[in-house]
């Protein structure tokens, strides 16, 4: 309800709200529920925006953060590829849309470089320059560099989910040994093509000491649930053993896909494509022995 003292008549008898002078209120003035509801945060004054933020509950703030970055289309097995971050910073002027978030992540992927020691890293300052935003905007969306690097893996997880969705119907076929071999070969070839993303995944895992919790909950868990029962029934394994088998093969494929040509030459006796083919054949044989131990 608008009081008489807060408005003045316009043409047609309408009443137009006049913003009260802030100096007539205490510094910690309470922003009305109506103002918080109808006024975009980027148009509130500094003190009003800070007060609004302090009045919001954690659940409301989390819901708003999710609306800023709505979940991407889920391509497979209810896997969520979008990495979400939350910041307690006041929203900068140039951080008002999902388009900004996407532009930052796209710039970061373009700026990813391999360091002399083989790690994948990025300069936040160069990302800000390429994206055309301030450093404050980047820190609003991604409080740490690790958050930004994790978001760079969204495209990788989208492609991984699409591959899993494509291969899932194969598990219903009757020639179980052929199915396991084909699925294993496809995942190994995918890992070889995604070597840079796997290096980044390995770097972030080493820093945390474990898989990032959102990825574990939204990607690894659903994929294990989808494949473990099927693979277990093929080889007569219980579900726990099947899940461990899948995780063992995941680690093996990831490690072997990251071998450099010099390592392939020493280990497999050949480098380049011939060496990769030798490793692919080996990975397929290992999968068959694990799924069909007898």
UniProtKB/TrEMBL annotation:
Residues 123-142 bind DNA. InterPro entries: Homeodomain-like_sf (IPR009057), HTH_TetR (IPR001647). Signal peptide: none annotated. Residues 1-28, 49-76 are annotated as: Disordered. One of its GO terms (molecular function) is DNA binding. Pfam families: TetR_N (PF00440). Residues 98-160 form the HTH tetR-type domain. Keywords: DNA-binding. This is TetR family transcriptional regulator. It comes from Polyangium spumosum.
């Amino acid at each position: 309800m608008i009081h008489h003292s807060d408005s003045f008549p316009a043409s047609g008898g309408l009443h137009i709200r006049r913003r009260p002078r802030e100096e007539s209120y205490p510094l910690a003035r309470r922003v009305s529920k109506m103002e918080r509801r109808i006024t975009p945060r980027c148009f509130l004054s500094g003190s009003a925006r800070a007060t609004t933020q302090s009045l919001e509950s954690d659940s409301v703030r989390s819901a708003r953060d999710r609306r800023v970055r709505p979940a991407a289309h889920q391509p497979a097995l209810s896997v969520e590829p979008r990495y979400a971050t939350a910041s307690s910073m006041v929203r900068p002027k140039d951080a008002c849309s999902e388009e900004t978030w996407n532009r930052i992540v796209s710039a970061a992927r373009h700026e990813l470089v391999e360091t002399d020691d083989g790690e994948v890293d990025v300069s936040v300052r160069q990302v800000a320059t390429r994206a055309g935003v301030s450093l404050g905007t980047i820190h609003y969306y991604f409080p740490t560099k690790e958050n930004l690097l994790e978001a760079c893996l969204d495209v990788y997880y989208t492609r991984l989910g699409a591959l899993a969705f494509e291969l899932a119907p194969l598990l219903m076929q009757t020639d179980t040994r052929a199915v396991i071999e084909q699925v294993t070969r496809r995942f190994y070839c995918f890992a070889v093509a995604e070597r840079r993303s796997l290096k980044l995944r390995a770097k972030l895992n080493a820093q945390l000491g474990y898989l990032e919790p959102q990825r574990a909950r939204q990607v690894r868990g659903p994929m294990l649930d989808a494949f473990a029962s099927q693979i277990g029934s093929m080889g007569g394994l219980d579900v726990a053993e099947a899940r461990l088998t899948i995780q063992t093969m995941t680690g093996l494929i990831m490690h072997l896909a990251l071998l450099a040509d010099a390592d392939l030459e020493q280990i497999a006796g050949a480098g380049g494509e011939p060496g990769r083919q030798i490793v692919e054949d080996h990975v397929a044989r290992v999968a068959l022995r694990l799924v069909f131990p007898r």
